[in-house]
Amino acid sequence: MRLLFPLSLSLFLFACSEPQKADTQTTEQADYSSSFEQDIEDRKAQLEQSIQEAEERVAKKIEESKAKFEEKVESAQQAFEEQIDLSQVDFEGGIDASKESIEKNLEKGEKWLEKELKGSEDELKDKLKKLDNLLSGKD
C-alpha cells in the first residue's frame, strides 16, 4: 500500500498534467491553424489583386487595339472615298469635248490651207500671165 500511494499520486499528477499539454497543443495548433488560414487569405487576396490587375491590363490592351483598329478603318474609309468613282466620270462628255476640239482644229487647218492654196493659186496665175506675156512678146 505504501507503494501504491506514491504510484497513484504520480499517475494522478501525470494525468492532470496531460490535459495541460493537450491544451497547449490545441492552442499551438489553433495558432498554427489561424496563421495558416491567414496565410491562405493573404495569398487569396494577392491572387485576386493579380487577377484584377491582369484584367485591367487586358482591358487597356483591348481598348488600345480597338482604337488602332478604328483609326485604320477610318483611314481606309477615307482613302476609299477619295478614290475617283469611275461611274461619276463623264467619258462621253470628255469624248465629245475632244471631238469638238479636233473639229475646230481641222476647220482652222482647212481655212489656213485654203488661204495658202488661194495665195499660191494667185501667185501661179500672176506668174503664168507674166510668162504668157513674155512668150507673146508683150512686156
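The record above closes out task 2.4. Task 2.5 opens with a second protein, given below.
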Amino acid sequence: MKLKKFTNLILSQKYPLQKQIYNFIIKLIEDGELLPGNRLPSSRVLANYLDVSRNTIIQVVEKLIKEGFLVSEAQKGIFINSNITIYKKSKEGIQKVNVTNCNVKSLPGLSSFGESMKRLPLVKSHWSSTLPFSPGLSDQNTFPYDKWQKLYQMHQGRISVSGFGDPRGYAPLREKIAEYLRVSRGVHCTKDQVIITNGCMEAVNLCSKVILNHGDSVLIENPGYPRAYQVFSALGANINLVELKNGCTNTDDIKNYKLSGKILYLSPTRQYPTGSIMEYENRVKLLQWATKNNCWILEDDYNIEFSKRNNLVTPLQGLIENSPTLYMGSFDRILIPSIRLAYLVVPEHVVPAFINIKNILQGPCPLLYQAILADFMSEGHFIRYIRKMRSLYTDKLNHLCCLIHEHLTPQVKIISKDSVMYIVLLTPGMNDIKIVEELSKYGFGSTALSLCYFGKIEKSGLIIGCANTTKLQRVAFIGRLEKIINSKDFNY
C-alpha cells in the first residue's frame, strides 16, 4: 500500500497519538480508501512516515486486529480483514457495505412475547414529564430537596448501600413501609411480605410472571389504567373487560356473565380514571367471589395519600386476613418521579415465588435511593410532606375547578375530583386526542380519557393534573382550553 493515503493524517499533541491513528485507519476503511484484502504498511515504515514510535503503531495494529478490522498473516504482513461488514458514510447518511457478499433475506423471528409487543398499539404521549397539567406529576418545586440531599450525601459513600442488595428490597425501608401501611391504610402485613420494585409496572409484570400461564384470563376494569392493560396483553393474557357501575367494578356483571380469570386488576379505593369509591358491601362480595373462584386480586392503591377525604377507605387487602390480594402502591408520583420506587405486598406463602422470579428477571432495586427513602420516612419527613402537600394541592384543585365552572361549563363536566392531584373532564362530542395534541403545542400536558377505554370508546374527556401548576398557569390553561372548545374545530 502506498503511504500517500496517510498524507492527510495531521497528528496533534492535544490528543493521544494512538487514538488519532486508530480513528484515521477506521475512517479509511469506512470511506473505502482501504479495501478488504489491502496490505497495511509495516509498523516500522508507518512509524517512520508518521514520525512516531514503532511501539505506538504496534499497539494500534493489535487493537484493530482484536476488533476484527485487521488480520495478521505469517510471513506476509497485516491486511484489512476480508470478512467484515462496514458502514460507509455518505451524503445520504450511513450505508451498509457488505464485504462478505452475504445475502440475508430476512431477520430471525421473535418470541411470541416479542411478536405480541409488535402488534400492541403504541399509546402516544403528548406531554413531557415536566409539563404543567401532566397527570400524576407532583409539585416538584416544593419538594424538600435540602433534606433529601442531606440524606443522599450521608449514604453516598457507604459501602453497605453500594452493592446489589436483597432482591426483596432494603430491609429498613420494607420495615417502614409495612409500619406505614398498617397504621395509615389498615393493611395486614409484615416487612417480610413487602417487595420493593422499580415502579408499579414492574410490580404488575412480576405478578403476571408468577401467576399467569400463556392464555390465562385477566379481568380489567373498563375504563381503566392503559399501561396495566398493555402489560397483560403483551404477556399473552386473555383480557376480559369488566364494565363499571356507578364508576366502580360491577360485581353483579362478573357473576351474571360468569366472568373468570387468574387475576382481577382494579383500584377499588379510587377507581382510575373515574375516581369512584367501591362501597363496602361490594368490596366484601368481590373478596368472596375471588376466594370462591381462585382468582387473585391485584389491588392498585395509587396516590391514595392525596385523597380529598379525611377518612380513607380500607383497601381490600385490609378487610380480611389471608385474602387472595396482591396490594401495590408507589412513591414516584407522591414524591418525585426520578425515585422510581414502588412496593408490592403479597401473602406469606407466595413470597418465595415472587422473590425468586424477581431475582432472575429484574434483580434488586438500586440500594441508594431505598436507603435515603427509609431515613426520609424514619425522620418524619414523609408524613409531614404528605400533610403539607395535601393542603396545597387542595387549594390548587379548588382554584382550577372554579375556573372551569366560570369559563367552560356547560360545554364540559367534571366527573372526578376525589384526588387532589388531578381531575377528569368530560368533553362530549369532541376529539379528546386532538385536544391533547393542541394543548401540548402551547406547553400544557394532559391525557385523553378515550385512551382509558379498551374497546368501544364510551366517553371523551381530559385527565388534567393540577399538582404541578401555578396560579398563572391555571389561568392560562383554562383560557387556551376555552378557545379550543369554542372553536368547534375539535368536534367529531
